[in-house]
Amino acid sequence: xxxxxxDKDTSKGHHYDASDISVLEGLEPVRRRPGMYIxxxxxxxxxxxxxxxxxxxxxxxxxGFCNDIxxxxxxxxxxxxxxxxxxxxxxxxxxxxxxxxxxxxTTLHAGGKFGGEGYKVSGGLHGxxxxxxxxxxxxxxxxxxxxxxxxMQEYSQGKKKSAVKKISSSKLHGTIVTFEPDQEIFKDIKxxxxxxxxxxxQQAYLVKGLKISIIDARGWDNTKxxxxxxxxxxxxxxxxxxxxSFYFEGGLIxxxxxxNKFQKPIQSTIFYVEKELDxxxxxxALQYVDDIxxxxxxxxxxxxxxxxxxxxxxxxxxxxxxxxTYCKKNEMMKESEGGFxxxxxxxxxxxxxxxxxxxxxxxxxTKAKLGSMEAQGAVATVFGEAFNNFLExxxxxxxxxxxxxxxxxxARKAAKAAKDSILRKGALEGMTLPGKLADCQTKDASESELxxxxxxxxxGSAKQGRDRRTQAILPLRGKILNVERARIDKMxxxxxxxxxxxAMGTSIGDTFxxxxxxxxxxxxxxxxxxxxxHIRTLLLTLFYxxxxxxxxxxxxxxxxxxxxxxxxxxxxxxxYTDEERIKIVGKGADVSDIQEVETDVPVEEVxxxxxxxxxxxxxxxxxxxxxxxxxxxxxxxxTTMDPMHRILKKVNIDDAEEANKIFDILMGSEVPPRKSFxxxxxxxxxxxx
Length: 689
Known about the structure:
Ribosomal Protein S5, domain 2; Rossmann fold; 5-stranded mixed beta sheet
């Protein structure tokens, strides 16, 4: 018998009416669900706040209203962005009945980018940038220089502290935004200077004639009582602080030169086209180099779209079609070889693609992928016609590009045959795990960990000290293959690389499947010396080149083993840096009170000294670990493998890209960049005698 619901039933779980509907006012939705607006509350989301404010200034420059932007990292986790644009309007908004400045800063989807003539082209078309930053900041202040005055308003957690007021007169024009992220939202607030510089360098290439300065003022000691609002540009305070400035007239051509600085070019002339078609501005620059990977750097309204989108699809289609047509027309390939695939024509290509649209659609608030369909056709047409003309007018360049693609086609077929031979028995699908892998007991990938350790000695200690249920160990003998210029067939012929791929279970190349990943933590545990750093860099390069999705998923970590074991009486401590060692031992300790215990002297001999001798002795015993293999299983577990005490660093795509860049320099065919790198970093090297 089914009991019908009684409308008067108000028991728990049944009562549901209008009073149960929550209405979040103002910027409350942003604070309640910040991930919906900035992607994450981790480091990427934290830096996204800077991009949102910077993009507003950059959009002024794209419109021709601004040519000087300054970004300053201030003490107390504050960031200041100033531009000499038109200045945010401060007059009363007809609909909200308050200043337009207050409307922009405290209302979602309010801005000059939804219609009218405020902006013809901009990146921040969602209209949430400034208000979202304001909502997620414990402190925010905007100063607008406009119409002969300076107008100011301050906020906290998205709420105004007072009305917009004119505080002084000014002959300048522009906007200054200073904000401090809220620690309630961002648990670890630490802006990375290199991240800021790299992002803004790209923007400088994209807007010709724009000067952008970055100042690291976090060490600024404001003893004179100066305020950052005392001047328009912070640099005018006359302080000697680390700074970087960018100004490029070459646009995307300059960007291609920057990316190919350490590469050997196949074509001497960089291809470039800039044209508007059906309201879509298209700009493309490309150059082929002697490499086996491609570098595609796409932008939509100057927003980097790392996941590509319609503009990249249009480019790839036109590139493949144009090269196939030219090759067939000039009879440069045998019919038996077939035609080029997208994979063939992309090999060794560095390309920057930039589109500008009035009405733009991104997939997601973080704007990682362009969804505007009109961009696909515009890029395909503009680039296809211009690149065909380039090939016709530059036969030598065309021959070099075609030969490069033919070589890639032949290598692809050879690599596929070799890979198919290796894969035909399903070895890479986890059917036959490598013998030296000490696997874990659990089959739940979410709680499984794979430690990549250097050498059999460290592997032995790790196997004995691990938690067998969740931790697997794969010892790597020596340095793995340098994948800088190696194709998949050569890679899989390397025993170490093949063992790693089999252990992961994902396969590789076009058969890669992230869902088959057997471990959701791959932990690189190498020694704290030059060889260990080399192996770690080789592994990061391997993951970056062939397993980028594994990095994007957050599965790659680097273990942080201690450098020292310190015994003071019966107390044992571990130090992970020289600074920690000094802190534990004590700054006032006499050198004669510190006994360096050589690594070939078992520390147990010191620990087993009679208690009365330990009490009478003031000596501190310091053991320097030179490798994981020198630790016994208990030490390795306690310091490096125990989830309750270990220190792990998660690898992001920037870390892997930096490792890849270093290998471009150190393992590439060009000698001058390698020589320059070694000379520049020689003083940073540690010599172990």
